Amino acid sequence: MRASTDRSERSGWQRVARRIRVPLGFVFAAVFLFLARPGWESLLVSLVLVLPGLWLRGYAAGYVKKNQELTTTGPYAYTRNPLYLGSMLIAFGFAAASQSWLLIAVLAALFFAIYLPTIRSEEQYLRGQFGTFEAYARQVPRLFPRITPAPSFSAAGRFSRERYLHHREYNASIGAAAIYLALLLRLLLLSRPR
């Protein structure tokens, strides 16, 4: 009885987490910009995470065929969730730019509370839709990538510019540029003599 209750509670939270992750991201962005105290060095250091995160998201978007097939090639031969990994790199890059330990801690908590249940929910869906998911999951880690591609899943597949454009992944780059612009304005306003 308790196990089924735990499953239904988890499924309920997974549904909530999936629905609130995007609106919560906008709320967090507003709080982030208010609390951020960027410096020139922290902005430069953040690029070490943000640029690879943007690249990974774009690269993954050129492979994935959402709800049509289980994508196992390209970055998906290294990690089952390259889009989320890219998002984490971007988010923690901006958190580093903010120079706020509070923002870094809140961001980490949000990822555990929102993204982990979302990933599990998506995996439940993939398990039900694609019979090969279990074999794939045994060879490819959920989030942090393998060093080499999983041998069974590294062949056959190419990056598709059309898929990249279809998924509108360029919006991540536009959003990142807007955040950098806001951080630069914040930096200039904070450094002005009063």
Gross morphology: globular
Major pleated sheet: none
Count of individual beta strands: 0
Can you tell me the number of structural domains? 1
Determine the N-to-C terminus distance.
64 Å
Q: How large, in whole angstroms, is the Cα Rg?
A: 19 Å
Helix content: over 70%
- Low-pLDDT parts are 1-10
Average pLDDT, all residues: 86
Q: What fraction strand?
A: under 5%
| SSE run | HHHHHHH
Count the helices. How many? 7
**Structural class determined from secondary elements:** mainly alpha
Core attributes:
single chain, 194 residues, mainly alpha
Report what the structure shows.
It is globular, with a radius of gyration of 19 Å. The protein has one domain. It has helices at 2-35, 40-61, 82-98, 101-129, 133-139, 161-166, 170-191. With 194 residues, the chain is mostly helical. Helix 1 (2-35) crosses helix 4, helix 2 (40-61) runs antiparallel to helix 3 and helix 3 (82-98) runs parallel beside helix 7. The protein has seven helices and no strands. The protein is 71% helix and 0% strand.
